[in-house]
Amino acid sequence: FLLLSVFIFSPFLLNGKSFIWKPDGLTQHFNSLVYFRNWAVSILRTLISEHRLSIPLWDSSIGYGSDILTTLHYYVIGDPLNLLSVLTPVRYLEYLYGFLAILRLYLAGAAFSCYCFRMKREGSAALAGSLIYAFSGYGIALAPVHPYFINPMIYLPLLLIGVERVLHGEKGHLLIAVTALSSLSNFYFFYMLAILTVIYFIIRFFSMKHENRKKELGICLGRTVFFSLTGTAISACLLLPMLLRFLSDSRSDTSL
In whole angstroms, what is the distance from residue 98 CA to residue 112 CA? Predict the structure, then answer.
C-alpha cells in the first residue's frame, strides 16, 4: 500500500502541491476541519476548566447564522477520524488533512481484506483484491479532492460482513455498530450503502442452500431489519436533525 501510495501521489510532493484545492477543498473540506477542531477543543476546554459539558449548536458567523450540527455533519461531524484534529495544532492541520485522505484509502483496503477473510479468500487473492479496491478509479480520483467520499468504501465491506454474520445465524453486533457509524458519518452516503446492502442480502440469501427457504428468509430478514434499525436509532441524535433539515431545504422543492 505504501509503495503504491508513493507512486500515485508523489507528483503532489514533487510539485509542491497539497490535497487542498480550490474551490471545494479550501472553502468547504479544509475549512470545515479547522472549524470542527476549534469547536471540539472549545467543548473540551469548557469541560476541563468549568467542569460542565457545553456544546455550542448555533453560530452566527456561518452564513447569516446556521445550525452547527446540520451544517458540518456532511463534512466532519460524525466521522471519527476527524477527532485526530483535536490533537493537532491548527498550523499542522494541512498535513493532517492529507494524511487522513491516505489513511482512509488504507482503511478501505483493510476493510475489504476483512471481507475477503470472511469469505475464505486469503493470501494473494485477498491482497490483490484489497489493493484493487483501495486504488480503484473512484478512490484515486476522489481521495485528494473529496477525502470524505472515501468513507463509504470503508463501511461497505464491514456492512457486508455484518450481513454474512446474520445469514449464518451469528450475532449482529457488527451490523449494529457499522450501521450506526455510517449513518452518523454521512446521511447522503448512508442511504446509498443501505441500498447496496439490501441488494447484497437478496443475492446472498438466494445463492445459499436452505432446508426451509421461506422460514429462514423470514428469520434472516427480521434479524437484519432489527439490527439495522437498532444501529439507525443509535445515530438518531445526528440523523434525525439531518433528515428534518433535508426535508425543509429549499432545494427539495425545486422542480426540473
Answer: 22
